[in-house]
Design a protein that fits this description.
The chain is of the alpha/beta class. It has two domains: about 210 residues, 3-Layer(aba) Sandwich (Aldehyde Dehydrogenase, Chain A, domain 1), CATH 3.40.605; about 190 residues, Aldehyde Dehydrogenase, Chain A, domain 2 (3-Layer(aba) Sandwich). It contains eleven helices and 20 strands. The strands form five sheets. A seven-stranded mixed beta sheet has the order 10-13-14-9-8-15-16, with helices on both faces. A six-stranded mixed beta sheet has the order 5-4-3-6-7-17, with helices on both faces.
Length: about 400
């Protein structure tokens, strides 16, 4: 693959360092130059094909890169539309859309790219990171995971149920930043389930299958995978399915056990399991015992409870008394940690992700006498001069080495 940079993009200008410099560097010009990586590969998923393709694409092109885009073949119509329409709005010299299935993706990954951005499952992410390692290619992985949602006993349960139901059943649950499971006490479960039932009925009517606002599973494979999870726990709400329509009703499972299949994988469908614990400390211990999720949710009228969940857990992001609204804040980074991925993007974070920040130092060739102190033979006098020259002197005798 021919390596080239996006010459149509903005010129990279040095960002001069404003920090104090060592005395030995008073004649130097130090700055950070933000350069594009070169050729970037973006592999996007099926669930939000336009958003999860265009957001990183804009950041990569803005940073000066050329981009190969590989949308998911599962959302075929969206893939076809992007391939046909994007050349009408973007310079074809800066990007290309590659369509096709697993074979085409595997062929792409055989090439050496300068950066790879992947959004999808952990299974495919493992394939991507293995391919990138062969060429020492840096990358960002957005992998999702089992996002826990802690609900405290001190709550407006109907408000909590409304927010959880909207976030969980939006796009038929095929959303990596939605709550994957609720964790709470048995008493809270008993209070929350009727409110969830009311929220679902308010959103989608008595028969959600007839609602124009409730989606379907992307294909038969994912339908069968999620339908098999209905055998876990006890069906408290929903549970109806229609294979011909790839329809799974908004479903809530009560009294789910941690060893059941639904707690061993990301649900990625309209099924919400509720796991009961005895107290907040047990909930936090359960969350921390598992892989770090993309997002942790916490609902409580007590701010100290929300803060405790925030302080005592680790995740890519956090939502206190909120649902999916953080995606509206372009000033907040989006990304995982550990098994939920690594790297951040959205807004300026997308630009930074696709930018190589080069630390640059320029020095004139004259005044060679100032350099002599670095050269052998070494003496005590040279050592004292080096110690003086390496110090960064600041006002009020504050010295940073």
């Amino acid at each position: 693959m021919e390596k080239h940079k996006n010459t149509k993009a903005r010129k990279t200008l040095p960002s001069h360092c404003t920090a104090k410099r060592p005395e030995a560097a008073v004649l130097d010009n130090a700055f950070i130059r933000k350069d594009p990586y070169g050729v970037v590969l973006i592999i996007s998923p099926f669930n939000f094909p336009f958003y999860l393709t265009l957001i990183p694409l804009v950041g990569a092109i803005a940073a000066g890169n050329c981009v190969i885009v590989k949308p998911s073949e599962l959302s075929r119509c969206s893939e076809k539309l992007m391939a046909e329409v994007l050349p009408n709005y973007l310079d074809p010299e800066t990007f290309a859309v590659v369509t096709g299935g697993h074979k085409q993706t595997a062929k792409l990954l055989e090439n050496k790219f300068d950066y790879i951005f992947f959004t999808g499952s952990a299974h495919v992410g493992n394939i991507v990171i293995t391919a990138a390692a062969k060429h020492f290619t840096p990358l960002t992985l957005e992998l999702g995971g089992k996002n826990p949602c802690y609900v405290d006993s001190c709550c407006d349960f109907q408000a909590v149920a409304n927010r959880i139901a909207w976030a969980k059943f939006f796009n038929s649950g095929q959303c990596c930043i939605s709550p994957d499971y609720v964790i709470c006490t048995a008493d809270v479960q008993d209070k929350l389930i009727p409110c969830l039932r009311q929220a679902i009925r308010s959103f989608y009517g008595c028969n959600p299958q007839d609602s124009p606002d409730f989606g379907r599973m992307i294909n038969d494979k994912h339908f069968k995978r999620v339908r098999a999870l209905l055998d876990c726990g006890q069906v408290a709400i929903g549970g109806e399915t229609d294979e011909c329509d790839r329809y799974i009703a908004p479903t809530v499972l009560a009294d789910v056990k941690e060893w059941e299949p639904i707690m061993q994988q990301e649900v990625f469908g309209p099924v919400l399991p509720i796991l009961t614990v005895s107290c907040l400390d047990e909930a936090i211990h359960f969350i921390n015992y598992r892989d770090r999720p993309l997002i942790v949710f916490a609902f409580s009228c007590k701010s100290e409870i929300v803060k405790q969940v925030l302080d005592c857990t680790s995740s890519g992001g956090f939502c206190g008394n909120n649902d999916l609204n953080p995606i509206a804040f372009v000033t907040l980074p989006s990304g995982g940690i550990g098994c939920s991925g690594f790297g951040k993007y959205r807004g300026k974070f997308s630009f930074d992700t696709f930018t190589n920040q080069r630390g640059c130092n320029l020095r004139v060739l004259c005044f060679e006498e100032f350099n002599c102190v670095r050269y052998p033979p070494y003496t005590e006098r040279k050592l004292r001069l080096l110690e003086f020259g390496a110090a960064v002197w600041r006002w009020k005798l504050c010295t940073l080495l």
